[in-house]
Write a structure and sequence with these properties.
Distance between the termini: 34 Å
Oligomer: single chain
Radius of gyration: 19 Å
Number of domains: 1
Structural class: mainly alpha
Shape: elongated
Bound molecules: zinc ion
Length: 132
Amino acid sequence: MGGRRLTGGSYPPVSPLVAGLTCRCPRCGRGRLFAGFLSVADRCQVCGLDLRTQDTGDGPAVFVIMALGFVVVAAALWLELAFKPPLWLHLVIWLPVTVAGALALLRPFKAVLIALHFRHGLMQPPDHRAGD
Ligand SMILES: [Zn+2]
């Protein structure tokens, strides 16, 4: 067991969901994952995991769009069918909900995706990045 692990270290396995939702390092579960709002730190301050090798691309945004879009569209449809409010009220309600929801979900979605990449060995070792 454990022969696939590319990452050394003697850390007990960290749940990708827990590491992601708490925005912590996917290997040790303690170091901070982010250096800014969405910018990932170069390396974990606790275990030294090189986080520059992560590349989730547009994945987090796609999942946020699908999850949040489903909830907001369903809620807007329900509101329209139940109360037939004027269009401006839809805008006043759903625009802030969408913006706030996207901002709130992007970080944990990105962190969970990075943790899942780490768990499944998809974080490329630095030598694969040569020539970037
Ligand atoms: Zn760490």
